[in-house]
Q: What sequence folds into this?
């Protein structure tokens, strides 16, 4: 049984690995793409952000499709989208085509961010569920690291950017074959339940009564995962370093350092999530984020030495990666009841992607107009709010069956 569930999890999180490849793979290609297609800053920004827009679309509609057609078919569709979108990006003759296929890749990423944690939570035994669902985030982190490494190895090739964007084709094909041959349908979904009973339920039902309260809690947790600043810190770290006079290393080296810390901290989460519990990790993570963000705000306000900024950023990333990064997905996949899990995860994940977009979009303006102290002060206040929210409202779900969780929540 253990071997089978671990193999099923391995196949299911391959989508998360390709998710990471798509998110980070473009980092080594942006300068070449700008030159090849003669893009303005706005044009290049559209190429990069098209993935996020696609994520919004993919996450919003996946739940309904998963209820209607089953989890397994969604995995297969995601694998096909990864193959087609990566091939399209690699062969794109112009920037408009590239934007279209980046959007398509985003739809696959958004869909996988819903279907991966949902499927694993439905298949996993209670005592291993936290760790197995967290493997989804671990796979994403590994995908990001591999993307950085591949970009570095491909730098000297002619038209290297096309090869960088085409890498997910190979892994997408492997994912499709393994999903087709190895993934059973979720035991919590059956054709009769999916095609008949669930079609009669309106999407608005997830907002009603006690179910609506739980969906609100999960959605707020998903929002806090992003508005505490992680994607702003990761995306704009080089700019932040420049403002404090610590620009020394190359962008690639900085990215690898961030990715490596992210990787190590995620391993800690895998180790602790089923022993110390979900709520404990979230609270300790929020506390560490508050302290590191407070240091960052003070360093900008009082001109503290720039070396401390790098340390504080890495500490912040470590606490986030060991808590909110994987645990949000675990908690939401557990607290949403069977009858609305797919649609509720779609909604909360869509809100998470919206918060990602807003954070990344407005952080440069805050940094340049108001300064680093304001930016990190805002993220610190959100982290404090996240701590209080988790402490008061998020239940501990460690070691409990999904049925037991539903009963305790009064659903």
A:
């Amino acid at each position: 049984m253990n071997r089978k569930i671990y193999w099923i999890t391995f196949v299911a999180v391959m989508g998360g690995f390709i998710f990471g490849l798509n998110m980070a793979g473009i980092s080594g290609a942006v300068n070449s793409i700008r030159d090849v297609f003669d893009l303005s800053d706005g044009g290049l920004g559209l190429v990069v952000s098209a993935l996020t827009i696609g994520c919004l679309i993919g996450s919003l509609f996946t739940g309904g499709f998963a209820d209607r057609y089953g989890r397994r078919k969604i995995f297969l569709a995601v694998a096909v989208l990864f193959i087609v979108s990566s091939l399209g990006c690699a062969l794109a003759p112009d920037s408009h085509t590239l934007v279209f296929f980046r959007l398509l890749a985003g739809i696959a990423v958004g869909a996988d961010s819903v279907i991966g944690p949902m499927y694993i939570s439905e298949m996993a035994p209670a005592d291993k569920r936290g760790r197995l669902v967290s493997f989804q985030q671990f796979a994403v982190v590994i995908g990001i690291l591999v993307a950085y490494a591949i970009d570095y190895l491909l730098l000297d090739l002619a038209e290297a950017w096309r090869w960088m964007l085409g890498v997910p084709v190979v892994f997408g094909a492997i994912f499709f074959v393994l999903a087709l041959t190895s993934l059973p349908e979720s035991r919590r979904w059956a054709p009769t339940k999916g095609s008949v009973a669930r079609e009669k339920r309106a999407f608005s039902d997830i907002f009603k009564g006690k179910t609506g309260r739980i969906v609100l809690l999960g959605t707020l947790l998903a929002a806090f995962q992003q508005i505490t600043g992680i994607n702003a810190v990761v995306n704009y770290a080089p700019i932040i370093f420049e403002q404090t006079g610590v620009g020394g290393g190359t962008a690639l080296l900085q990215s690898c350092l961030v990715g490596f810390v992210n990787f190590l901290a995620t391993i800690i989460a895998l180790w602790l999530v089923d022993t110390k519990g979900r709520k404990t990790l979230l609270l300790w993570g929020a506390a560490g984020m508050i302290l590191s963000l407070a240091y960052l705000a003070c360093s900008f306000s009082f001109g503290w030495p720039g070396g401390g900024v790098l340390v504080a950023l890495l500490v912040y990333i470590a606490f986030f990666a060991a808590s909110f990064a994987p645990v949000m997905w675990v908690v939401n996949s557990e607290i949403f009841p069977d009858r609305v899990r797919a649609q509720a995860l779609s909604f909360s994940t869509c809100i998470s992607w919206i918060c990602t977009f807003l954070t990344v979009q407005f952080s440069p303006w805050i940094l340049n107009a108001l300064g680093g102290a304001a930016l990190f002060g805002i993220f610190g206040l959100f982290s404090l709010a996240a701590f209080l929210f988790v402490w008061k409202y998020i239940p501990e779900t460690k070691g409990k069956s999904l049925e037991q969780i539903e009963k305790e929540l009064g659903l």
